[in-house]
Amino acid sequence: MNPQSAIAASVRKVLGSLSRVVTSEPVLSLTFDDGPDPDSTPPVLEILERYQARGTFFLVGQAAAAHPDLVKRIASGGHAIGSHSWDHRAFPGLSSRERQRQLRACERTLQPYGSRLVRPPYGEQTIMSRLEAFAMGYEVVGWSLNSGDWHEPSSAVISKYLLEMIEPGAIVLLHDTLYDKGMPAHGTDSAHQSWTDRGAMLSALEIVLDRLRGRYRFVTIPELLHVGRPRRTFWFKPSLAIK
Ligand SMILES: [Zn+2]
Asked: Mean pLDDT across the stretch 34-61?
């Protein structure tokens, strides 16, 4: 590597967010945000186990603190666990002090199972929040494929999109549950019910794993990083993903 590309690689390591790895091996990472959830995380774990697939779960600290048994169960299934902040507030709107408090509080809750991976809530971050994560030893993980499972009610649409787009080294964004401070944990109105119903995601996950069985290996993010060259992108738009 020449000096200029070595410098560029260092800058990407500090400021870039992992979006995929470059590899020709048929391997990819499924990632699940917003859990753990006693209703919808166990079915995800059962499906993954049935297909001998491993995933990476970006957990919300507050939910993890309420369900330590689920955190342990995720880890014992061979899955990786990363941070998704303490209470899922978007980082750009928080003070630096509060962001670091969020990361530390989540980190304490995930011990001893957490890895040094973080996915900022909504995929939103600033240069400053990225630097803070780096200073705390975190790799920021984005995605290369957004399943749209947080708004798409049809398993056929989700699975068709993923099956068309999946490629070696991909990082797929999924949600085992949906965490939002503004919504009641268990609402009674029908809009909230459809918003929180994870049936479409669960069936789509099963369709994708079934169709790709024997053709792809589904590994954790730490494992994926050993297979290929990490692609880190500058990921600073204040509102890139879910809103
Ligand atoms: Zn989230």
From this structure: 97
